[in-house]
């Protein structure tokens, strides 16, 4: 199971999403600015609110995209 935590306003979330589509990797996406439960899971997983975050089988495998990220606003 692959989860992408991000925001609509973060261009790096969009780039990582497009990359996942391109390689054909199925994932579930959560917008942490719109979904307070997803935001709480993100904070529990990473201790912060930087996006995008890629999680596989409950483990954080990537924070940011190509060395870049965004700080998520309030949910």
From TrEMBL:
Pfam families: Glutaredoxin
Database matches in CDD domains: NrdH (cd02976)
Residue ranges annotated for the Glutaredoxin domain, each copy included: 2-61
PROSITE patterns membership: GLUTAREDOXIN_2
Keyword annotations: Plasmid
SUPFAM superfamilies on file: Thioredoxin-like
Protein known as: Glutaredoxin
């Amino acid at each position: 199971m692959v989860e992408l935590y991000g925001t609509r306003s973060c261009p790096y979330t969009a780039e990582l999403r497009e990359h996942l589509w391109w390689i054909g990797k199925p994932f579930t996406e959560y917008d942490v600015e719109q979904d307070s439960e997803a935001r709480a899971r993100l904070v529990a997983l990473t201790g912060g609110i930087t996006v995008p975050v890629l999680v596989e089988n409950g483990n954080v495998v990537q924070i940011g995209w190509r060395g870049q990220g965004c700080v998520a606003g309030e949910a």
